[in-house]
Amino acid sequence: MNPTPSPHALAEGMRRGDRTALARAITLVESTREADQDAAAVLFDHLGPPAAPSFRLGVTGAPGVGKSTFIEALGLRLCQQGRRVAVLAIDPSSPANGGSLLGDKTRMDGLSHHPAAYVRPSPSADLLGGIGAATSAAVRLCEAAGYDFILIETVGIGQSERHVADIADLVLLLVDPGGGDGLQAVKRGLIEYADIIAVTKCDGELRTQAEHTLAEFTHAPSSYVSRLPGSRREFLPVSVHDAALLSALHDRVTAFEQSALHHLPDRRRAQVAVEFKLALEQAVMKWLKGHPVVAAHAQAFAAQWPQHGLPTAMVRQTMDRLLTATD
Ligand SMILES: Nc1nc2c(ncn2[C@@H]2O[C@H](COP(=O)(O)OP(=O)(O)OP(=O)(O)O)[C@@H](O)[C@H]2O)c(=O)[nH]1
Ligand SMILES: [Mg+2]
């Protein structure tokens, strides 16, 4: 690949609607190299505040529940309405092979080729759960490039729901018609982070099952309250093969977007505060993992075998050493 253009050239390219410039800018913010991070910081200076605000929808759910297929369907509808749609599909990197679990299965062919859309499968680097500071920065880059509706697809594992709720304006949790993963989600408290919960694949042979699962949710004893003031968490059926169901869900998203408009500045400030904390966590973890004192103490703890207590005392010593180290 050609060397990355200067931050100034990237900013110019992004303003012109050049997707390659946007892709390269996102690669810069995802890079952990210091030189790239510096270039990304200069890029943001060149970009300045966004010309128009974007709405950010997080779509989460278990693998295979239908997130990408739904995003493709909703994204195309949004494009038809004149929106410019960006999709960041966070692909949990497999630690075993350094590659991705999902590979090219993004299932967004129509949207990827649409002139008003941009689809970006992003590796989630080494953060379990997938959403990191880079995701939040990538969202801001898409906004700066003129995309006014940004979808973030993330697999519902680990901490991703919590983080996607931190960086999105609205979180849609998709649940399998079989209901198993939905009930798991309730148990694990994941549902707390969702504003709308939709049971997918409500069509054909799966329709009855999907309706049954939806009823279970709707009649669940606790009253789920959405984080948007004055609105309740909603439960809906959806199918990409059913225009009426798709329309109904699309309408709910639009209604949420309208009602969220006047909270947007506060939310944006909270979102960049989260981005800062995530970046700090990543930097601190990187520093700790590479620190010789940490490695030495971990080895010393392991060497106590077979007489192991809790690592707490050793960790305290490690912290003391790190905090008093003068070099
Ligand atoms: N019948 C039916 N099948 C669907 C629907 N939506 C998705 N599917 C199918 O479900 C399977 C998984 O869809 P994906 O969109 O790739 O699911 P995903 O949640 O993005 O999966 P990962 O990205 O792997 O986590 C595919 O075979 C889709 O064709 C739907 O509304 N109805
Ligand atoms: Mg997918």
Overview of the molecule:
The protein is of the alpha/beta class. It folds into 3 domains: 48 residues, Single alpha-helices involved in coiled-coils or other helix-helix interfaces (Up-down Bundle); 217 residues, Rossmann fold (3-Layer(aba) Sandwich), CATH 3.40.50; 35 residues, no CATH class. 50% of the residues lie in helices and 13% in strands. The protein contains 13 helices and 7 strands. It has a 7-stranded parallel β-sheet, with helices on both faces. Helix 2 packs across helix 3 and helix 12 runs antiparallel to helix 13. The relative contact order is 0.11. About 4% of the residues have low confidence. The structure holds guanosine-5'-triphosphate and magnesium ion. The site of magnesium ion (MG) has 4 residues, from helix 4.
Compile the SSE list and pairings.
Blueprint: H1 7-16, H2 19-30, H3 34-47, E1 55-61, H4 67-80, E2 85-91, H5 109-112, E3 117-123, H6 133-144, E4 149-155, H7 160-167, E5 170-175, H8 180-187, E6 196-199, H9 207-218, E7 234-237, H10 243-260, H11 264-289, H12 292-302, H13 312-324
Parallel strand pairs: 1-4, 1-5, 2-3, 2-4, 5-6, 6-7
Helix pairs in contact: 1-2, 1-3, 2-3, 2-6, 6-11, 12-13
Bound molecules: guanosine-5'-triphosphate and magnesium ion.
Residues 61, 63-69, 102, 105, 107, 155, 200-201, 203-204, 239-241 line the site of guanosine-5'-triphosphate.
